[in-house]
Amino acid sequence: MDRSQIMRSVRSTDTQPELAVRRMVFELGYRYRLHRKDLPGRPDLAFIGLRKVIFVHGCFWHGHTCKRGARRPKTNVDYWKEKIARNVARDASNESKLTASGWDVLTVWECELTKPEELRAKLRTFLATSELP
Fold first, then answer.
1. 32, 45 in Cβ contact below 8 A?
2. Is residue 90 within 8 Å of 41, Cβ to Cβ?
3. Parent domain of 68
4. 17, 29, 96, 99: least CB-packed within 10 angstroms?
5. Is it the case that residue 2 has pLDDT exceeding 80?
6. For residue 60, is it within any domain?
């Protein structure tokens, strides 16, 4: 399998981490809209009445500081370093735009799914209050 075929198979929506977060939020009793094109960054979940959004980020693709996010490919290193840096900058820009327009933003990292009870509590707190503790 060549690199371009592998890259084509990488999904940007309806990923396993995103589906897991959606199930948790639904079980908590919240309803949401998916991938709102009218909001910066097209958040994975948007709670319009609450003016809250949730992004579900893959640790590698969005440069998280965890073990999985710290991995770097062994080939084409410069390209990947720049690519991930652009993703991080874009994420920060989108979050700034959202907060400036009155939206609360929560980023859920793929690695957080390994502790579902902690993540569920974090989601409940975020959706039930005006700010995350």
1. yes
2. yes
3. 3-124
4. 29
5. no
6. yes
Look at residue 3 and tell me whether its pLDDT is greater than 80. no
Give tens-digit pLDDT for 15-43: 999 999 999 999 999 999 999 999 999 99
CB-based burial label for 118 (10 Å; 0-12, 13-18, 19+)? exposed
Q: Measuring CA to CA, which residue among 30, 37, 33, 47 is closest to residue 106?
A: 47
Give me 110's structure tokens: 């793929």
Whether residue 129 lies inside any domain: the answer is no
Q: How confident is the model at residue 129 (pLDDT cuts 50, 70, 90)?
A: confident
Contact of 46 with 33, CB cutoff 8 Å = yes
Tally of domains in the chain:
1
